[in-house]
Recover the amino acids of this structure.
């Protein structure tokens, strides 16, 4: 039998049960100390360096709920397993809501008990081991500042800073590429949960049944796993594109938000869900609710605080601020000495609609820096990375206009003027936007596609 380094503390007033549990754990190599009261147990746990507490629900001078509450006042991530009887199952669920990591029903199966202990200790070890990794990731995101002086960005950042101080769930909205995950990271880093994990999850990537197991965990079978919710315990769970979540999973997620308890797929075993939820979407969820595609109660549970990131085309001078930032970043990375832009390159940056938002701008600047040969990005570099955008570059001359138009006005002018002579693909290429972005604008403006011949 190998001696383990983990130190456990047992709070149990029944001498017979106490001896059985201590013997069972000792046979597995654990170091175990015990007490029969809440007061004595808390005193010794505070004085010692323990990794896990196992406590009975009913004790002479209190309850297991008291143990959970008092220990978590100092360390909300400290693992506590509750032992209870069937008749007190409701209290066990309450303990999970309070922050206990698991509960065991007496009389318990020895293997199930040991599995619960090992799982709790594994999570504790992973939490400690991942602390350095989280700090590394946080540092990496700190090097990716959320830049922007526009009114819309400043409003979003101010709301984020205020929201970070609370435990409320947050819904972030904005188009693709506006930086929703970056904002979620910043929110987490400024929150009381900053030392806990930040777990990003892409909703709708897997089939519904597979995603349910990934989200809630699978307790049985060869592919058993703890799930994203358990992984995010004590931290933040970021749900990207929450609108993609199926109807059945919306119901189950709502229960987790309401009860702070989740249930693994397989045996339905409940576990604590001490998680702050931050969801994001580029869709209008209010419209999805109105159409019956998204549950209204889940929408309100997630949308306690709303943060909206404006599209890049509405951020004015922020485009040049971001472009200079990325030019400097990729110049250093690629060993170049790019220090600015010429007039043609600057004009393009200011007039392009950037349908892919900040993500598109970043990759565009990266490509331009790769081809750059001097200290300025010029029209020649522009031709290397944006050869299919002559209409945008030549505006307003190409349309015979005397005055420049706002970006959206320009796009509409091109669509109305050329839709009878150009295909959808050609129009999108002329404007430097995707076909989906073109269709979205048609719907917004009520412009129907004119049929050409039999096409």
């Amino acid at each position: 039998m190998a001696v383990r380094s983990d130190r456990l503390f047992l709070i149990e007033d029944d001498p017979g049960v106490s001896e059985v549990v201590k013997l069972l754990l000792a046979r597995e190599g654990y170091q175990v100390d015990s007490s029969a009261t809440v007061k004595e147990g808390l005193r010794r746990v505070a004085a010692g360096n323990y990794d896990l507490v196992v406590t009975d629900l009913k004790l002479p001078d209190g309850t297991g709920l008291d143990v959970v509450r008092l220990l978590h006042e100092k360390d909300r991530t400290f693992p506590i397993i509750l032992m209870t009887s069937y008749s007190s199952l409701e209290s066990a669920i309450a303990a999970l809501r309070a922050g206990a990591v698991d509960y065991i029903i007496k009389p318990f199966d020895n293997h199930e008990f040991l599995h619960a202990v090992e799982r709790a200790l594994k999570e504790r070890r992973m939490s400690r081991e991942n602390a350095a990794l989280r700090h590394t990731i946080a540092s990496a995101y700190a090097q990716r500042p959320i830049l922007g002086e526009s009114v819309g960005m400043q409003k979003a950042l101010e709301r984020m800073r205020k929201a970070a101080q609370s435990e409320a769930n947050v819904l972030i909205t904005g188009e693709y590429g506006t930086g929703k995950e970056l904002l979620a990271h910043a929110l987490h880093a400024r929150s009381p949960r900053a030392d806990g994990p930040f777990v990003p999850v892409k909703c709708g990537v897997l089939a519904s049944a597979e995603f349910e197991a990934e989200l809630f965990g699978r307790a049985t079978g060869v592919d058993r796993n703890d799930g994203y919710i358990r992984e995010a315990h004590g931290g933040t769970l970021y749900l990207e594109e929450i609108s993609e979540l199926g109807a059945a999973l919306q119901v189950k997620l709502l229960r987790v938000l309401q009860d702070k308890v989740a249930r693994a797929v397989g045996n339905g075993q409940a576990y604590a869900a001490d998680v702050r939820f931050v969801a994001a979407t580029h869709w209008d969820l209010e419209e999805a609710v109105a159409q019956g595609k998204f549950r209204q109660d889940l929408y309100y549970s997630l949308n306690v605080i709303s943060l909206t990131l404006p599209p890049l085309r509405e951020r004015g001078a922020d485009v040049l601020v971001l472009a200079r930032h990325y030019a400097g970043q990729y110049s250093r990375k690629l060993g170049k000495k790019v220090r600015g832009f010429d007039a043609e390159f600057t004009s393009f940056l200011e007039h392009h609609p950037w349908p892919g938002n900040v993500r598109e701008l970043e990759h565009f600047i990266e490509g331009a820096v790769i081809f750059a040969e001097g200290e300025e990005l010029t029209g020649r570099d522009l031709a290397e990375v944006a050869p299919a955008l002559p209409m945008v570059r030549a505006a307003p001359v190409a349309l015979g206009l005397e005055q420049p138009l706002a970006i959206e006005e320009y796009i509409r002018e091109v669509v109305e003027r050329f839709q009878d002579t150009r295909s959808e693909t050609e129009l999108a290429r002329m404007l430097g936007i995707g076909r989906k972005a073109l269709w979205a604008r048609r719907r917004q403006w009520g412009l129907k596609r004119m049929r050409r011949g039999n096409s």
Observations:
- The CA atoms of residues 115 and 121 lie 10 Å apart.
- The chain has a mean pLDDT of 83.
